[in-house]
Amino acid sequence: MAFEPKTPYLAVDGIINLQDEFGNWLGIVLIERKYSPVGLAIPGGFVEVGESVERAVIREMKEETSLDVVVLRQFRVFSKPDRDPRFHTVSVVFECVARGNPKGKDDAKVAKVFSYEEIPFDSLVFDHREILKKYLSDPLAVFKRL
Amino acid sequence: MAFEPKTPYLAVDGIINLQDEFGNWLGIVLIERKYSPVGLAIPGGFVEVGESVERAVIREMKEETSLDVVVLRQFRVFSKPDRDPRFHTVSVVFECVARGNPKGKDDAKVAKVFSYEEIPFDSLVFDHREILKKYLSDPLAVFKRL
């Protein structure tokens, strides 16, 4: 290819709101990362060439948490150059919902649901603390609406 | 670097709502592209490594239209693999406002404002027809709110 732009890496992350069989919101699914940087994180991963961001987030949620999510909306793009300590990664963050039991797989050692009141902000890696704070204060967040 | 993900290229595009000195909305700024694919387009360009998407759209709007825009919000991410005929490019589209006279520069042969009723949808390249149709039907679009 003659012209090859050099741009940041593109990732997706999914804020999964987990519901029980009675329609109650249990909280948000977080994973314990297997690779550096280790710590708790919203599940996510890199977008593949030829894949839309919506397909990417559905694939990554399945790979890391075993959950089949429904994507509700694009929440927001996070792009600060230092948000990923390895290199510049831009992430499209989605609001998702799911029902079932999360099970850590692939890059995730463990996947676990944390109630909205008990999110361990200080254990979150990358800028996921900022992402989740923004999400929890969003009046349109699904667990506040239904 | 040990681990190098291969992801789509990342771009930004700006839907610039142009206002006159009386506070009237004149329409949207489009450019005539100098390079392939030629045709009319929303101004935009690739994000540089080390640059946030917000800075990238401000820079690109200045380079292509000479306008100093104010970014109102992230509108939406467009990521269909075939949206750019050259390679897979994911674009973060912003809603912007500006006042002044657009002047084509850089990759833009001409920059011109089109009233909301006179957008030449059939001359638009990439998926910019779809982007602008979605934007014009958005109840939150700034020219409908103020």
Automatic annotation (TrEMBL), chains A, B:
**InterPro entries named in the record:** Nudix_hydrolase (IPR020476), NUDIX_hydrolase-like_dom_sf (IPR015797), NUDIX_hydrolase_dom (IPR000086)
In what residue span(s) does the Nudix hydrolase domain sit?
A: 8-136
Q: Which intervals of the chain form a coiled coil?
A: none
SUPFAM superfamilies per the UniProt record, alphabetical: Nudix
Gene3D superfamilies registered for this protein in UniProt: Nucleoside Triphosphate Pyrophosphohydrolase
User: Which keywords does the record carry?
Assistant: Hydrolase
> Which GO molecular function terms does the record list?
hydrolase activity
This protein is called what?
A: 8-oxo-dGTP diphosphatase
Q: What is the protein's species of origin?
A: Thermovibrio guaymasensis
